[in-house]
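Recap from last week: sequence in, structure out.
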Amino acid sequence: MSEKKRDRVDDEKEPDPASKKPDNTTTSTMKSVTEGVEFDTIAREWRCKWSQDNDKKSLQESQALLESVLTDVKKVDGFKQVQRIVCGSCMDFKVITSVSADQFEAWEASKFEPEPAYLEKLKAIVGVSQVETQTYTIMPM
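Predicted structure tokens:
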């Protein structure tokens, strides 16, 4: 084999594994519900039904209430995102806050602040009913 060819082949070799730097891009550990069902995000959902009465005033007030707590929600340790879902046919209003699974227990211990006051105010809106919460894992696929 010529000198030139040998150099090219050597250049194509995999680098020595010991010389590779570790990949530190993942900061949280995946948890598992069962084998093959892993997650690193837990979501808390606040939901209710709104009424079409008064030109959907209860929906408007629910949205305004959500906007009034968004800053506090986004300060939760491990915060990832807030999503709002509105269904016009079944009149659902849902708020989904996703946090790192590693930080979830601390948020749970705080009673999901600002959840208690938010839910009380939501229940007081005329036309809002079926105020509920749910916790679940959530992962992009």
